[in-house]
Amino acid sequence: MNTKIIIIYISTFVLGNVYCASDLTEEEIGHVIEGRVFPPEDPNNSNWQLDTRVHVNGGEYIGFVREDGTFVVHNLPSGSYVVEIVHPDYMYEPVRVEINSKGKYRARKVNYVQTSQVIQVPYPLRMKPVTKFRYFQVREQWRLTDFLFNPMVVMMVLPLFLIMILPKMMNDPETKEDLKQISNLAKISDVPEMSEMFTKIFNRGSVPKPTSSKAKQIKKRQ
Amino acid sequence: MGNLSINLKPNFMGLLKCLNSINWFIVFFSLINLSMCIYEDQIGKFDWRQSYVGRIKFAQFDTVSTARKIIVATEENVLAALNLKTGQVVWRHVFESTSSGNIQLLHLSDQIITVTGSNPYLVRGWDLSTGVLIWEWGLTLQKNEHTDFSEWWVQNGLLVHMVPKFGSHIEVSVYNVATGHNRGATSKLPAVWINEGCVLSPPYYTCISGSPGNQLLLSMDVTSDAVQIISKPLAEYTTARNGNLNPFDTNTVIPGFLLNEKIILIRGNKFEAINIAISEPSASVALVDSASGPLVLQTWNDEAKGFTLMAHNLVSGQRVNEIGWSDRSLSIPEPELSAVICTKTAREQHVCRILVTAADDASHLIQQEGRVLWTREEALANVVAVEFVDLPVSDLDAAIESEFDQKEAAKMHSSVLAAFTRRLQSQFQQLQGAVRALLAGDAAAADEPPPLVRDYFNLHKIMVLLTDTGKIFGMDNLSGEILWKLYEPNLNTEAAVMFTRRSARHPPHDAYLTVVGKHEETGNGLIVSLNPIRGTPVGEQTLHLDVQILQCAVLYKADAQKLHALILLDKDENVQILPESSAPLVENMYMHVADRSSAVVRGYALRHDGERVSAKNIWSVDLSGGGSQRVVWSVSKPAAERIHSAGRVLPDRSVLYKHLNPNLVLLLTEGPDPVHKDVVVATCVDGVSGGVLSAHVHRRARRPALPLHSEHFLAYLYYNDKQRRHEIATLELYEGPERWVPAGAAFSSLRGARAPHVQRHAYIVPAAPAAAALSATERSLTDKHVLLALSTGAIVELPWALLEPRRALSPAGEAREEGLVPYAPELPLPAEAVVNYNATLLRLTRIHTAPSGLESTSLVLATGLDLFYTRIAPSKTFDLLKDDFDYYLISVVLAALVLATYSTKYFAARKMLKMAWK
What we know:
Strand order of the largest sheet of chain A: 3-2-5-7-8
Strand content of chain B: 35-45%
GO cellular component, one term (chain A): EMC complex
Membrane topology (chain A): Single-pass membrane protein
Radius of gyration of chain B: 34 Å
GO molecular function, one term (chain A): carbohydrate binding
Oligomer: heterodimer
Keywords (chain A): Membrane, Signal, Transmembrane, Transmembrane helix
InterPro entries (chain A): Beta_sandwich_EMC7, Carb-bd-like_fold, EMC7
């Protein structure tokens, strides 16, 4: 019996998701959330009211935008609600609206991390588009400058320049003369060479003699 | 100077530290952002969306505005305008999915008037051409049970609301439609004769009342100022003992009703029986106006003749011959006339457009002579289960595969010569196929739909969708086209499951798919088996069991026909195996059953004793926690999951092994608590041994939802009542730096009782999630991404790395080296991560994922009111060339290189020659 036991166990059990039905007393129902949605500044967006939806608590209550941008969400019991304006292309900031049992309203910014922080916003709500959603990546376009300054291309082009162009320039008579001049200049400028300097320093005493004799010889010839 | 440096130094060090930590963020987020976004020109390349509205409840033709439309209100609480020519949605308004969104009335005049909700009611007016809201007002009535029977209609620009109180009186209120101003308050009309069987045909309310044998047909105009009751003995109109009243399905002309298949009109405060016979008791009858007077239309589904429609002139009682036909090819079960419009052509011919809604939720717009202009399969607005099925390989590929795959055949004639001839044969076939394809050319290929064969990467599949009404669809995943449909009227799909019992990989055997559901009336098991490629019944076909099913599973071993047996555990704890012949294969099989209300989970061991298979209850776990908790979700691992990554490599080159228990079940329970209001408990139970591996309690939390379970990790969402936000809790199970079982050995739940190391975290979801799913790939080597469907209509793709419970608040050196992101409480939901871009999906309910043949790619289908299909690549498409790969450029470069090589060769030769001559 102690041989290898393979246990494969497959079971599928689907259970529906059940939400609690909130039991409400009669006088609690009947609050409304009012506000106004400002259209995105897009000239060809004529029927923006159709695309814009007002969701309270993620679609638990839904409001619709009228021609002028105003909206009313009806039949809310007192409590705390997150009002979102849903538009496929533009982002609107959500607002938390709190209605107490006396029917007083307070609207504040939604902060899911610090839930007790209160930054009040005016009520009735004024919802303005924040930005346009950026869903897409911008495709890279082929540009000559990008291509030329690509390090790989630079690495290719520079040695090519050194190999192909430099010898050609050498053959050119004008450049040859230029080069000659440069080399002459180098000869003229009497830059003391390091090795000479060192030999001068270290061989002081013994070496100066022949040089001085040579100078004498030259002087004699003169 | 010295002072300055002292001030600067700590700041500088701080800045360095800060930069160092930010570095990880930058590296990480740049990686994520790159991996998820799509390009704008890729819209519709890999994805499609289909919009639905639900089963049509009310429909009316828009004859006022220039663009021809049908305005519909549906059972799914949607108000929509459909294009008359194509049937496409022009605009759509979605109300609340709860009873507060129920549409009670749809009325068209110069604007659309709707009444929604069930006390409190909302009356709204919409612009007919644009669909924009014009006005709305609310109405709250005193609560009582009678309001459920209330009726609404519009009469002379006034909204009438009627509440019958059976056996006592009728309450009628009249309102100004646009303002809600109550004209004459509520009037109470005494009527002791009303009961549940009454019908309304505005403004008349008609009942049959009285003792049997002495019954009266009573009717009353409820809007008139003077109460006038029309009363006639029932025996005048029908010979039957019991009268049965039915309203017309569509009536735009004269108030009237149906009494036992007889049409009775109310004209001039008198009943008027019409001498037009209703051919079928189940027929749907409509009264419509036309140029030549009112018409009576009736339609039914005749067993012999199929879909049948008939029209009579109301005044003359004559049949109108040009309207009326039978069509056997149309399958419209229990047709219902939703809306009819009839006009006359120049040649004095009736032209009718008829919108028919069937029992399978499909809507058809039918024109003269039974020509169907369009059909909308509204059942797809309510998908219950989805199964991705592989397509069979093409004949040619099958031949090639059989060449390498025939072990038995090789044994029989193992000579080299036989193998060689087989090879020659198959290659000759390939050549033939190639020549044929070449001769046929492109023109022929373009006309035909692509054949239903597997493509090279196995991206082309068939999706089998099981819908709430019991209609099963086979859909092409690349185009979204419906390939076949099957309507099973008796199937109750509540908690139904689908199994692919044989894939199309085993020719000559066909693929085999089984739906396990309940019978609509008895609640007993109902099993539908079909070929998912063609939609034809196979095997057991439709099987009615005589007992309720407790649990079902598919046997892990296939029989000689490569068919996996279906194992059913019924209410009496008996086991049934389908087919019976597979019973000896049952070995080491375990099942568990979770009772939803009592929260008791029972485990069963299945044994085959030589004759039959029996189930023995071996363990039970009580999760009720003192009786208040109930099971909301029970999720085990996807059965087809293959995991090829056993651990995580840590920076010190050691491996942290995952606890890959295939029998793990996550059970979510919810219940009230005296101290903490509501409590959610997540329990990980081993489905074989019944051992509890871990349990987590969330206080003041409710609505646990959408658990995810794969590999070694689990996640579930819940609503945090205290902080009023949605949170996602994630768990990861690890075995530690050493494996419990040697590599390659099978996992056993019964060996050793070691508890895995559980790591967990919770994150804030700054939105309202509606559904969640994990990406699925062939071998689980690719990163896992979580797909979160939000109530706003977006599907956000999040890498699992962001949800990982191993994220530390401030990662120490090693964790940082591993690439763990520091813990942040709020999950980022950037717009770049939205896979469905601005194609908003309304009322999403579930996301289904399936692996493709490519390791990098996962197929995704989101269901809800809309269907949306796309494919995602969590680790980018590392095994596929980019779709914008420039074949042109690379071929030009290659050609240029070849050219350059040969030309330089030529020039070099010439130079050599010249040199030689010098």
